[in-house]
Amino acid sequence: MEIFNLRDIVAKDQEWIRPWIIFQWGAEYVIAHDTKYVPVDLPGVVAVDTNGENIGLITYQIMDQECELITLNSLREGIGVGTALIEAVKHRAIQEGCKRIWLVTTNDNLNAVRFYQKRGFHLVRIHRNSVTRARKQKPEIPEIGDFGIPIRDEIELEFVFD
C-alpha cells in the first residue's frame, strides 16, 4: 500500500491549487447551492506522496457551527486518500465546534454518492434544478454527466457529530 502524508494548505500551494482546480472542475471556481467558491482562497488539506507529489486536495468552509466540504479530489483512487482527507477535516470541524459536515454533489455523480455514504454521510436533500441555475454563473458545467445522466440537481449529504 502506498504511503502518503497530510498537511494543511499553505500560501505557496496557491501556485498549483489554481491549475489543479481548473483541471478538475473546469474553472478556478465552483458553484454549489447558488454560491460561488474559489477553492484557492479556502482552507484545506493536501495529501502528499513519499516523492513529494501532491496526490489529493480537500477544501472546506466553516460557518455557524457547520463545515461544508467544497472540493475533494484524489489523483490515486483506492489507497485511502479521499477518506484520509475527509477524516482530517472532520477532526478540524470537531475542534471548531461544528455540529455537522455537509456537501453537495450533482445528481449524476453516483460514485461520490456511494463514496460519501460508505463513510457515514446521509442523503438529506435534493435541490431540484440547482445545477441548471448554476450554469448561468458557470457555463462550463456540462449538460450531460456520468453514465449519460442529465446534470440538473444537487444532492446534499451530511455527517452529524454525536
Structural account:
This protein is of the alpha+beta class. It has one domain (4-160): Gcn5-related N-acetyltransferase (GNAT) (Aminopeptidase). It is built from four helices and nine strands. It has a seven-stranded mixed sheet with strand order 1-4-5-6-7-9-8, with helices on one face. Helix 2 (81-95) links the parallel strand 6 (66-74) and strand 7. The longest helix has 15 residues, at 81-95.
List the helices and strands and how they pair.
Blueprint: E1 4-8, H1 14-25, E2 30-32, E3 35-37, E4 44-49, E5 54-63, E6 66-74, H2 81-95, E7 100-106, H3 110-118, E8 122-127, H4 130-137, E9 154-160
Parallel strand pairs: 6-7
Antiparallel strand pairs: 1-4, 2-3, 4-5, 5-6, 7-9, 8-9
Based on the coordinates given, report the CATH architecture: 3-Layer(aba) Sandwich
Main sheet: strands, sense, barrel? 7 strands, mixed
Would you state the CATH class? Alpha Beta
Rg (CA only): 15 Å
Overall body shape: globular
What is the element string, with H for helices and E for strands? EHEEEEEHEHEHE
